[in-house]
Structure prediction request, 356 residues.
Amino acid sequence: MSRVITFGEIMGRLEAPGFTRFQQAMPGELEVTFAGAEATVAVSIAQLGGNAAFLTALPTHAVADACVANLRSLGVDTSHILRTSRGRLGLFFSETGANHRPSNVIYDREGSSVALTPPEEYDWGTIFAGASWFHMTGITPALSQNAAEVSRVALREASSRGLRISMDMNFRSKLWNWAPPMKPRELAAKTLCELVPYVDIFMGGREDAAELFGIRAEEDACDPHLEVARKISARFPKITHVAMSLRECISASHNNWGGMLYEVAHDRAFRAPLKNDRYEPYVITNIVDRIGTGDAFAAGLIYALSQPELSAPSKIISFAVAASCLAHSIKGDFNYITSAEIEALMDGDGAGRIKR
Prediction:
């Protein structure tokens, strides 16, 4: 597989155990893992057998050492992670929802090392040497004005070297607070409109397209997702593919899950999963952890797009959707799922029988 570089923030994730609320769990023990969208993509690709490196800036202390060691133990190349005395390790707190109570996330990430480290401190020539793919999300430029500038420079440097670029929009309304009095949605729209022209693979849902770019399907559209994908590619002509996860939230515990891949050159949309050649989403009725599942979708898409045996658009989207479906069964952000398990689900083995 071609070498993939992902760039963004990795944080400590402190979670209330089980389905408890913060008020129940604290004071007391919280479960600590490491998490972050782009790091999750790198881990997922490495777990699938791909070649992935993660780029970020982290402080020089023992907890950040543990974070780097965790990534390295999962097969991610950490050699480009910048260690600095500037800033801190960001945190977020999460409680897992159930039934009709949604999950909740509280961010504590202001002043993190990656938000403060300027673009000139990264050795872009060395970072991108031998790489063929660059991935980031709309979360990173949301952190600070400096992080937005680093994102712009990273995209420019990757593009100038001919890397294929993917970006997951991931609009986070709790972020984007670095240019008051501009509202988060306005700031995100302005900033991302300047970054998306570098992108080849656009990842984002209809909500992202509407919130950030004012792109909506007509009310009488027979296929709203396809219409939005066409409008996105028309607005940003460098885009070759538009990928959308199709999530139907019945409750916090029950989601229906699928995806669509739009191929711009042939004006074709492919959906997964299919049953008797018709789209029929996976029914997930016992969600273990929803955080990170969109990143599992992104990782599956990147991996499949890089594999000759998965290069057919129908297989690409089937692989990405199956990978992210299985991620709903894994606690924590990282998707500890193998390619064989994904392909088994693609082939219809979703009953969860014990493997003996």
Summary: Residues 226 and 269 are 7 Å apart (CA to CA).
